[in-house]
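Dear colleague,

Thank you for sharing your sequence with our group. We've completed the structure prediction you requested, and as agreed, I am returning the results in plain text so they can be pasted directly into your records. Please verify that the sequence below matches your submission; if there's any discrepancy, let me know and we will rerun it promptly.
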Amino acid sequence: MKALVAACALAGVLCAQQFKINLDHLEAKASSKVDLALASNWLQFGGTFLDPKDPDEAKAKKIISGLEGLYIKHFEFKTEGQYTQADVEQIRNQLKPPEWSRMVGIKSAEDRENLEVWVRSKDNKASGVAIIATDPRSLTVVNLVGNVDLESLAALGGHSGIPKMKKK
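Please find the predicted structure tokens below.
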């Protein structure tokens, strides 16, 4: 599942506090769950292991410096159809304008995978990112909280399994 790999790669490069998006409606439906919450102090600690002389690690360190937390919840389901589009819509409903804007939406008809990237703005700066990755038997939500440097985040594309976005 390419969408999940991209979401997990982003988590591996970055690394949060309390999950800001409510996913309680999925807890009982899932057969297995992964819940990762790294607060700012753990992110900063992880950043101390990054080499500032390595360009990619320096970019990751710059991104980490503004984060308050990174939260990842991944749900696996035994069979297709255990979660519905209404469940996904409950997540989207928490990402409402004017604070949140959907930046990217990718749908793969072949694999039935979907990936959405939402950005939260405050005072004309990115103050959060939410990634929703789905396939028929799994759903992953990644939530970055804090000051997010989108240019630095985009610059990580093509490294550590994060897909490179092409500029038109």
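Summary note from our side: Residues 1-18 have pLDDT under 50 and may be disordered.

Kind regards,
the structure core
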